[in-house]
């Protein structure tokens, strides 16, 4: 069997390693350059590869193609493969064929990284043999090739779910759905929502779908579509018969007959969205028979994800916060909602069709100045120009931080929460976050 891997990044190299181990004839093809660390792996394992372009005749010899999540379906080469009847799948689909582990799959527009890390943290504390992969850490395929984990917690993007056929997690979580990546879905939110719900398409009556009952997109989709999995909702707005909800400032979880109760104030991560992330993770743990004591302790001592509302330093009474992972408006909504002091907001980057208007009430209430960090800032200036007196454009993290330092006064916060992708000025959101933190430390 010939496996062609399109894209020599994390998921591509993991797939190549697993494919080689399982006896496939593997060929890796990348349209750009392959990073040094990945090229080294290919050379060491003697996997043939090409970079700076795809040789169509070589790619079309495939029995199966794994394409990296970054390659859109509309690319002519992908269209041609499909016309030829060659199977094109994601790394998640490929790797899932080679493991019998219990899988928890987590998707959603926001909160999926925190929920993935938190769920993994709880299971690990209970002594589970558990791996964490997907959009986070080492690729799922590489972990299947090199480890014997009995459980996986996978963070799954819509792009990864677009490439599944039979993949079925035992527990699926949809944290929320808000417009994101619409450029990949013909600017139709319906297509994006359908994509997220692929996570449950192969689940059976013995599996579970945990979801945000307060999310209108999720609620509407579930009304008009039938699924087989058992439904477990969570809500911070109303009391539910089954699932997770809030009663007297406590999180209450009912997955079967017994209740799990924990005070909201003892959660390590505060904010409404983190209450929801905690609910989803705790329900998952309860389904997997983790002791209540472990769930409680894990929710109390969990440290959040880097680049997600991460406190960097306090300088002259001003708190600097790195929320570089906020690559869409909804993530920034959460960030602004959690601010309790006057805020200098650093925003901007590659706009994915954002509507900033949803942020207006929070900006009016909390933001004293806006610093634009992107090549194209017109939309931000148009939206907030009449509400915020001070809007400054900058061309890099260092300049943005220096400007913020001049504007912010004792008792204020400086929040990097871009609401945009980062590819105009940075390699990725991690690079953006690290450059921000470096600039803060050098003040």
From TrEMBL:
<dbReference type="InterPro" id="IPR013221">
    <property type="entry name" value="Mur_ligase_cen"/>
</dbReference>
<comment type="pathway">
    <text>Cell wall biogenesis; peptidoglycan biosynthesis.</text>
</comment>
<dbReference type="GO" id="GO:0008764">
    <property type="term" value="F:UDP-N-acetylmuramoylalanine-D-glutamate ligase activity"/>
</dbReference>
<dbReference type="GO" id="GO:0009252">
    <property type="term" value="P:peptidoglycan biosynthetic process"/>
</dbReference>
<keyword id="KW-0961">Cell wall biogenesis/degradation</keyword>
<dbReference type="GO" id="GO:0071555">
    <property type="term" value="P:cell wall organization"/>
</dbReference>
<keyword id="KW-0067">ATP-binding</keyword>
<keyword id="KW-0547">Nucleotide-binding</keyword>
<dbReference type="InterPro" id="IPR036615">
    <property type="entry name" value="Mur_ligase_C_dom_sf"/>
</dbReference>
<dbReference type="GO" id="GO:0051301">
    <property type="term" value="P:cell division"/>
</dbReference>
<keyword id="KW-0132">Cell division</keyword>
<dbReference type="GO" id="GO:0005524">
    <property type="term" value="F:ATP binding"/>
</dbReference>
<dbReference type="InterPro" id="IPR036565">
    <property type="entry name" value="Mur-like_cat_sf"/>
</dbReference>
<feature type="binding site">
    <location>
        <begin position="108"/>
        <end position="114"/>
    </location>
    <ligand>
        <name>ATP</name>
    </ligand>
</feature>
<keyword id="KW-0133">Cell shape</keyword>
<comment type="similarity">
    <text>Belongs to the MurCDEF family.</text>
</comment>
<dbReference type="Pfam" id="PF08245">
    <property type="entry name" value="Mur_ligase_M"/>
</dbReference>
<dbReference type="Pfam" id="PF21799">
    <property type="entry name" value="MurD-like_N"/>
</dbReference>
<keyword id="KW-0436">Ligase</keyword>
<keyword id="KW-0963">Cytoplasm</keyword>
<dbReference type="InterPro" id="IPR004101">
    <property type="entry name" value="Mur_ligase_C"/>
</dbReference>
<feature type="domain" description="Mur ligase C-terminal">
    <location>
        <begin position="307"/>
        <end position="420"/>
    </location>
</feature>
<comment type="function">
    <text>Cell wall formation. Catalyzes the addition of glutamate to the nucleotide precursor UDP-N-acetylmuramoyl-L-alanine (UMA).</text>
</comment>
<dbReference type="InterPro" id="IPR005762">
    <property type="entry name" value="MurD"/>
</dbReference>
<dbReference type="GO" id="GO:0005737">
    <property type="term" value="C:cytoplasm"/>
</dbReference>
<feature type="domain" description="Mur ligase central">
    <location>
        <begin position="106"/>
        <end position="284"/>
    </location>
</feature>
<dbReference type="GO" id="GO:0008360">
    <property type="term" value="P:regulation of cell shape"/>
</dbReference>
<protein>
    <recommendedName>
        <fullName>UDP-N-acetylmuramoylalanine--D-glutamate ligase</fullName>
        <ecNumber>6.3.2.9</ecNumber>
    </recommendedName>
</protein>
<keyword id="KW-0573">Peptidoglycan synthesis</keyword>
<dbReference type="Pfam" id="PF02875">
    <property type="entry name" value="Mur_ligase_C"/>
</dbReference>
<keyword id="KW-0131">Cell cycle</keyword>
């Amino acid at each position: 069997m010939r496996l062609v891997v399109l894209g020599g990044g994390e998921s591509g190299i993991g797939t190549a390693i697993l494919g080689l181990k399982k006896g496939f004839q593997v060929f890796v093809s990348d349209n750009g350059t392959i990073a040094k660390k990945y090229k080294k792996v290919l050379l060491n394992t003697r996997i043939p590869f090409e970079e700076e372009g795809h040789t169509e005749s070589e790619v079309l010899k495939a029995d199966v193609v794994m394409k990296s999540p970054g390659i859109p379906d509309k690319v002519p080469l992908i269209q041609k493969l499909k016309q030829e009847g060659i199977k094109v799948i994601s790394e998640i689909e490929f790797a899932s064929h080679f493991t019998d582990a219990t899988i928890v799959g987590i998707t959603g527009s926001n909160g999926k990284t925190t929920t993935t890390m938190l769920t993994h943290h709880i299971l690990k504390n209970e002594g589970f043999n558990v791996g964490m992969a997907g959009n986070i850490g080492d690729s799922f395929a590489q972990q299947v090739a090199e480890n014997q984990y009995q459980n996986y917690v996978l963070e799954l993007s819509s792009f990864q779910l677009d490439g599944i056929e039979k993949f079925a997690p035992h527990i699926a979580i949809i944290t929320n759905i808000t417009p994101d990546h619409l450029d990949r879905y013909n600017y139709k939110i319906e297509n994006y929502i359908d994509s997220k719900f692929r996570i449950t398409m192969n689940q059976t009556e013995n599996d579970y779908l945990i979801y945000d009952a307060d999310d209108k997109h999720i609620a509407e989709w579930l009304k008009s579509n039938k699924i087989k999995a058992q439904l477990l909702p969570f809500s911070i707005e109303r009391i539910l018969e089954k699932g997770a909800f809030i009663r007297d400032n406590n999180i209450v979880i009912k997955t079967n007959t017994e209740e799990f109760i924990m005070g909201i104030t003892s959660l390590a991560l505060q904010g409404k969205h983190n209450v929801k992330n905690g609910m989803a993770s705790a329900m998952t743990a309860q389904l997997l028979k983790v002791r209540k004591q472990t769930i409680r302790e894990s929710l109390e001592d969990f440290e959040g994800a880097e680049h997600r509302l991460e406190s960097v330093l306090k300088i002259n009474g001003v708190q600097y916060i790195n929320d570089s992972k906020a690559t869409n408006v909804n993530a920034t909504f959460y960030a602004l909602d959690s601010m309790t002091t006057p805020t200098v907001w650093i925003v901007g980057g590659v706009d994915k069709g954002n509507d900033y208007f949803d942020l207006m009430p929070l900006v009016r209430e909390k933001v004293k100045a806006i610093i634009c960090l992107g090549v194209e800032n017109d939309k931000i200036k148009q939206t907030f120009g009449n509400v915020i007196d001070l809007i400054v454009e900058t061309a890099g993290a260092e300049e943005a931080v220096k400007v913020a330092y001049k504007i912010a006064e004792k008792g204020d916060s400086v929040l990097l929460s871009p609401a945009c992708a980062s590819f105009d000025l940075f390699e990725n959101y991690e690079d953006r976050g690290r450059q921000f933190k470096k600039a803060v430390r050098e003040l």
